[in-house]
Amino acid sequence: MSGVKPPYRIVFMNYPARVSLGHYPTPIEKLARLGAHLGGPALYVKRDDQSGLATGGNKVRKLEFLFADALAQKCDHVVTLGGPQSNHVRQTAAAAARLGLRCSLVLRGNRPPQRLGNLLLDELLGAKIHWSGARTRDEVAAEVMTGLRQAGARPYLIPVGGSNGLGALGYAVAMGEAIDQLAAQKLAIDAMVFASSSAGTQAGLVLGAALRGFKGRVLGISIDSAEAELKVRVTKIALDAVKLSGAGIAASELAVDVNAGYLGGGYSVVGDLERDAIRSVAQMEGLLLDPVYTGRAMGGLIDLIRRGVFAKTQTRRHDPSALFATPARPASTAFQVHPPSPASSRTAS
Ligand SMILES: Cc1ncc(COP(=O)(O)O)c(C=O)c1O
Questions:
Q1: What SS3 state is found at 257?
Q2: Which of 105, 256, 326 to mutate to test the pocket of ligand 1 (most atoms within 8 A of CB)?
Q3: Domain ranges across the chain
Q4: The domain 28-56+164-332: what is its CATH number?
Q5: What is the residue with the minimal CA distance to atom 1 of ligand 1?
Q6: pTM of the full predicted structure?
Q7: Ligand 1: which of 166, 198, 301 to mutate, judged by most atoms within 8 Å of the beta carbon?
Q8: Which CATH class is domain 59-161?
Q9: One fold for both 28-56+164-332 and 59-161?
């Protein structure tokens, strides 16, 4: 279902510079066997894991705007923060390598005994890793920025998850891309369901939905925050994106819809919800979801379908519901997803 070429129909007054890092549009695929098994609405997946750049993922769209800003400011080094298995830091390291900038990563906690998954890739991609230990990542990142400036570098700080107004524009554009792809296939969807954590993805989707008059739900499954807290974060980032882009959207036009009912044991704690969803999608669709984000979001979507929230009767033309999936295979190797284990497994986050 690809074939829609940029520029996508998203109207900004100011269009901030963007470097090209990804392969777009990412395909939309039908999850026919999973949809039939659940007996609810038709399911489609937007394959943002196919965005290219060191196994792809959902940060590439944000990084296209953030690296353009870094280059415009003549920066030669990027610094960002995350957990040891962060997809965002791996994609930042890859973007820096591609564009010839140096990269420093501030990761939470202490160096684990084994380098697995994204951590292994961060080092392979040439990033320098700083462990925050018992200190906050923000404190360590500020120190790293100061040290780099003193050494004569021009560092650029990218926030956790690439989630600020500028990064969120990547997902406003993504919403336009998805709407155009669906329209080309004569499909109307009732809901777009996805993982929401540092809030930039949802902020962008909500802004894109308002700009394009999308009528369905744009539902973020919270990965690690209470509903009210996440809604405030999404709204703030979306309004920052409005300001930057001159998008002409008022706060009242932003439909910020969050479900925080699937937090389980907390961030990166893989429980039965995630394990069952990952196994079902792997075995029915041959699609690999990541354990922290899309595993949890898909677990939530499956549960909501089972509860009748997205019933067949609610549907319009083709009754689909869509999931923005950004599977992240590298992290899967660092988590115990399969085979099932009675106890939840946790890796440092
Ligand atoms: C695979 C995947 N999906 C979804 C998200 C959530 O995006 P955001 O942090 O912008 O809310 C992330 C964040 O790292 C991710 O890695």
A1: strand
A2: 326
A3: 28-56+164-332, 59-161
A4: 3.40.50.1100
A5: 326
A6: 0.90
A7: 198
A8: alpha beta
A9: yes
